[in-house]
Amino acid sequence: MEINEKKLKTILTEQREEFQCHLDIVIKKQSDELKKQGSEFRAEVQEQGKKFRAEVQKQGSEFRAEVQEQGKKFRAEVQKQGKEFRAEVQEQGKKFRAEVQEQGSEFRAEVKEQRKEYQHYLGALNESFESKIQALAEAVVANTEKLEEHDQRFDKIDETLDSIKINVGVIKLKQKTDSDKVVVLEKKVVLLEKKFQGALNF
Questions:
Q1: Which SUPFAM superfamilies match (predicted)?
Q2: How does pLDDT run across 110-156, given as a tens digit for each residue?
């Protein structure tokens, strides 16, 4: 029994050592395999990274090229529209200046025509005014002549009245004439004085 136990222990020890050795081999193989796979994975990752970076660079270059191309097209379109806009503005400016000149010419012609009409009106008004002044001057001269005639007549009337008054006085003094003649003479004197006063009021 003791021998069997020793053998059993020996066998178990040998088997354990053998198993440990096998296990070490397996672990070493798996470790080597894992290292190999890790190296391959890192290499693959690096390769994928290189490809990704190359793709990104490629797409970036393409994107920059596309942006530059779009920028060129945009600038060309802006320049084209700018030229068209400037041409349109110049055309509108020409039309506006032409219209302003046309309206200015029409306005000057209208002002000139109105000035002629106004000068004609002033000329006619001046002629009418001069005619009225001339007529007024002639009327003043005529009235002056009439006044001079009236003055002469008034002088004669004054002389006549004075003569009548003297005659009436003489008649009254001499008392050779009847009262009816005196009354008639006095009435004539009053009538002449009224006419004389009316002439003065005129």
A1: Apolipoprotein A-I
A2: 888 888 887 887 777 777 777 777 877 777 777 777 777 766 776 67
pTM: predicted TM-score of the whole model, two decimal places: 0.32
Check if the beta carbon of residue 182 is closer than 8 Å to that of residue 172: yes
- Looking at residue 87, its amino acid is A
Q: Which two tokens stand for residue 40?
A: 């391959």
Write the pLDDT tens digit of every residue in 10-62. Answer: 878 888 888 888 888 888 888 888 888 888 888 888 888 888 888 888 888 88
Distance CA 191, CA 188 (A): 5
Do the Cβ atoms of 182 and 154 come closer than 8 Å? Answer: no
Residue position matching structure tokens 């970076």: 53
Q: Cα separation of 89 and 84, whole Å?
A: 8
Please answer whether residues 153 and 125 qualify as being in contact, where contact means their C-beta atoms are separated by less than 8 angstroms: no
Q: Is the dihedral of CA 72, 74, 79, 80 positive or negative?
A: positive
Among 26, 7, 4, which Cα is nearest to 15's?
7
Q: Tokens 């106004």 appear where?
A: 118
Q: How far apart are CA 108 and CA 102, in angstroms?
A: 10
